[in-house]
Every structure is written in structure tokens, then in C-alpha cells.
Amino acid sequence: MNAVVRHPLRNERIRAALAQLAVAAFVLALVGWLAAGVLADMRARNLVPGFDFLRNVAGFGISEGPAFAPTDSYGRALVVGLANTLRVAVVGIVLATAWGFAVALARISGNVLLGGMARGYIEALRNTPLVLQLVLWLSLLRALPPLSEAIALGSVGAGAGAAGGAAGGAATQTAWLLLSRKGAAVAWWQLTDGAPFLALDLPTTGRFGYDGGLVLSPEFAALLFGLVVYTGAFIAEVVRSGIEAVSHGQLEAARAVGLREGQALRLIVLPQAMRVIVPPLTNQYLNLAKNSSLAIFIGYPDLFNVSQTVGNQTGQFVAVLGIVMAVYLTISLGTSLAMNAYSRRARWVGR
Amino acid sequence: MMTARAYAIVRRHGAWWLAAQAALTILAALLVWWTVPPLLRWLWWTADWSVVTANLRLFILFRYPTEAAWRPALALAMTVAAVGLAVRRAAARQSASGARTLLWLLGAVLASFVLLRGVGSSVVPMNLWGGLLLTLILAATAIGLSLPLGIVLALGRRSALPLVRWTSVAAIECVRGLPLITILFMASLVVPLALPDAWRPDTVLRAIFGLTLFSAAYVAEDVRGGLNAVGAGQYDAARALGLGSVAMHRLVILPQALRAVVPAIVGQFIALLKDTSLVLILGLTELFGVARSVVNQPEHLGRFREALLFAAVVYFVLCGGLSRVSRSFEMRGRESRRGRAVERT
Hints:
Chain A is α+β, with helices and mostly antiparallel strands.
């Protein structure tokens, strides 16, 4: 009769089941509540739930990216926005990696002047908001000379103004890199019909814009530059701490077997440091991709920016935001999964 | 002797390396020569800082009434004191009551918020809040609120209950995979729709909601790192003493885990301080927003760079200063721990 009858809530199993049930109920209630609110609001504004509006004609233009006409659909507009996001993210990641490694090497070079400059640069960029930097870069770019007086780096030639008259006899410039308030233009390989399929195409200042070369709009140039120098500062710190994580004995051993400083770094230290560097480096790549959504502050038509325009025109803010979030999540989670697979393999190989 | 030393350096590094070093030094010097003098010239002569000096009040308080400026000052003093006390307690290892320290912090932040808003006839509507004041309020409130939420998420992620674990993982990874700007936008768009009209929160509260949600996911990952650093022996010891799961975490695990993540959380606070500049998208005017808006005054047209640079310097001083303070605490903590270890042996 004295058998201990435990209260059901004292039973570990029952408590666990109840806790799970409570969490599930909470999550379902939260989602249902939000969904109900959103649907009620859509009814009040005479909006049809669903994604059919994506087929309607957009009626606005997009300043750059894949061809887009105002007669194209909203769905197509979002695709163009995504292409613009990927364009700036991919180019930005490549350049930020190169720049970040260069700055890290400058920082640990032992060269006092260069190291000090690298340190000042890293501190300044890491401790100020990216938005502020982007807006500053765009404003500096807009303060560059006009097209007719473009700054030419690696000038190849200057000719008399094309078509005379209105051009006022301003000289045209041909160079490897041209900079003006109309943006930047760099020499680039272009497909040609002639024998060498790829021919180097040098940009020239025209009357209303650049002729030839790879032309970067001021918004794209400012966004790309801003993302590269900002993320580069973070990457430099990641690389530096990775290199410092390799024990000093490795460097001494490399010297002892007669390797030069550069060889020791390239053959001994960096390969070991990479194992430490790669995970945080991936985080920085993802940060760069996510930070490209700040394009809206400087008017570059990336995915988020375009989605805001679509939302404004259709009123379907929630649906559009859902699409944008799904795209970013796919990019982020996909990269994370790939990364985890890589580090698992790297761990097998190492040690 | 000089030549012998130089010869040794050449032998060790190779002549190419030396030449490269020389070239790098020259390059760096040229870079300094090209950029620094024009920059100084601009700072001293070309720039017109009246856009900053004439609008200093806007930059700091925005439209918060000047006669009530003692309230932000008091709130700041209160919060700094609470944080200082919490850090001292943590350093002194008096943290069998880690939960109480957290509650103090939270209390200080909420009390500051109430003080700033006021009650009854002394209410300062939140649409008057702005400038540096709003930047600090947003960052402090969001980090204060995201700490408990982040701890809950981190514990949830390690829970043995699958549903709890999956929910936490999904929440953390979704938020971390999204740009802050989309989360802020969602907070301002979707959350009000789910509430009755009379309860529609003010824009400042929506921004705090979005920032808290965002920051909590990152805090959760920091805390998870701290939890992983606590040895398995601590769990065994706590269980051997007969502590239940809640008491074990509150008295044994969390105090150790949280002490280990203080630097990471300071880093998160710094990141948040910078990220508050994005609330401009919700129509709030914090420090960066003020810099953007004062240049619309007719007498300061085109003085955008001066205003931006001033805001950048304020951010730099705040964030750089905080990270320096945190680093020095970290050093001191490491030294004192080493000292204790020596004592014990």
C-alpha cells in the first residue's frame, strides 16, 4: 500500500512529452496568428493571396543587369534583381578574398610603415557601419571629374573630340581603366568575329558614356568597392589569426631546412592556416552576400531593392518579402552545408 | 659590423626578399604621400564643419526636448553602472547568481527605457527620439533583450527533446541566413498586422523587435560556444550532487559558460551598434539618419561628406573604444586566472 505513486508530472518521460507539446503548440499558434493577421489585412485591401501577381506586367524599368523592359512581368523583375545580387556578390567575394589576403600579408610583413597602414585601415573600416561607408563611396564617386575629363589609368591614347560641335572638342581618352562620375570602365575581353575569338577591348570615353570595355555604373562601382574593402578588412583579420594559429616552430623548422621567407609562408604556413581560416572565411562570404542587400541605400537594383519596388506597386509586400527571404536562405544554407562537408573532409585529411 | 648584419639578413631571406621589402616600403610611402596631404588639406581648409557644429544637438538628441536631457544622461549612467557591476561580479566569480546579474542588466535597460519615455504628462513621444541617443537605445535594448532569448535558444539547441531542438535550430539558422534589412522590414510589416489596431507598436519598438530577434540568433551561437567549453565533468558533478536540470544549468553550467562568452557578446554589441544604422529603412532617424537629413538644410546643402565623416568618427570612437575595453578585460581575466592557477599548485 505504501508503494510510491509518483505524480505524473514527476515522470521524466511525461514531462518531456508535455514540454515538446507545449513548444509545438506555441510555434503553431504563433505561425497561425501571424498568417491570420496577414490574410485579414490582405482581405481588407482587396488583395488576392498567392503568387499570381508575378505574371502581371511590371511597368517600371531597371537601370542595369540582364535585359528588362517595362512590359516584362514582376517575376522577371525579381529574377533580374537576383542576377544583380549574384553579380555583385560573386565578383565581390573574389576581389575581397584577394584584397583581404594582401592586407593580411601587409599586416604581418614586419614592414613597419606598411603594417601600420594595414592596421589603421582594418580598424577604421571594421568600426564604422557599412551603410555609411557605401553612401560615402558613392558621394566620392559622384565628385569625380565629368566624363570628358575622365581620369585615365594606363592611358593608351587621346584623340580629338568625336563628332566635334556639341562635344566642344573635348578629347576622347582610351585607357586600361577610366574613372569619372559616370562610373568606371575597365579593359575587358570581348567576343569578336575575327580569328582570335577573344580580343582585348579598351574602353574609350564617348559623348554620353563609355564606348567598349567593361562598364561599371556608379552605383555598382560604389557597392562593389564598398563591399570589397569592408569585407576585405574582416578577411584580413581572419587570415592573420589563422596564420598566427600555426605554431611558430613550423616557421622555424621551415627556415631550418633552408626555405626562404616567402617559400616558408607559401609551402608550410598557409596550407596549415587554411584549415583554421576556411570556416570564418565562409562566414565572411555569406556576410558579403547578405550585406549586398544594402544596395537599396545607394540605388543599385539588387534583389531586395527590386522587391521593394514590386511590393510598392502590387501591395503584395508579404509575398515578395517571403520570396526574397527564401532566396537568401537558400544561398546561405546551401553554402553552409557545402562548407560543413568541406571541413569534415579537411579534418579527415589533416593530422 | 653593419655589413656583417646586412649580409646575415640577405643570407637568411634572400636578396629578392630584401628588394621586395624595399619596394613595398617605397610603395607605402608613396601611398601616404599621395593620400595624406590632400586629405589634411580637405579636412582643414576645404571642409565646412558648420553643418556639424550648428546641428550638434540634432546629432546627439535629435528632437528629444533639451530641458529633459537629464533623462538620457541619467539612463546612460544607470546602464553603465549596471554593466560595470555585472562585469565586476563576473570577474569576481560571485556568480552563483548569474541569473540575478542578467536580471539586473535587463532591469537597468528597461528602467532606462521607461525613464526616457516618461509617464503621464512627462511622456516624450518616440517619434522625437533620434540621433546618437536612438542609436544607443536601440543597441542597448536589443542586446539586453536578446541575451535571455539567445540563452534560451542555445539551451534549446542542445536539448534532448527533438521538437525543442529542431525549433531552436530552425529559428537560429533562419535568422542567421537572412540579411538584417529583411528581418527589420518583416518586423515592421508583419508583426503589426498580427496585433489589434490599438496595439500597433511604435516604429522604435518594431525596430527593437527586429534587432532583438536578429541579435538573439547570434548570441545563441556565442552562448553555444560557451556551453561547449564547459567540461563534461561539470555536468557529472552537478548531477552527482543531485541537482535537477534547471538547477544544474542555473548554478553550475551557465555561470561558467556565460563568463567565457563575455568578449563575444561585447563583439555582438559592437556589431549591433553599427547595424542600428539600418533602421533608416523604417523611417527612424538615428545617428546616420541625422547625417543624411541635415544636409537638406539650405545653408548646408552639399556638405554631405562632412556630416557623414562626423557620424563615422562617432561610431569609430564608440566601437573602437568598446572593443579596446573588452580586450583589456580579457587580458586581465586571463592573467588573474593564470595567477589563481599558480596559487593553487
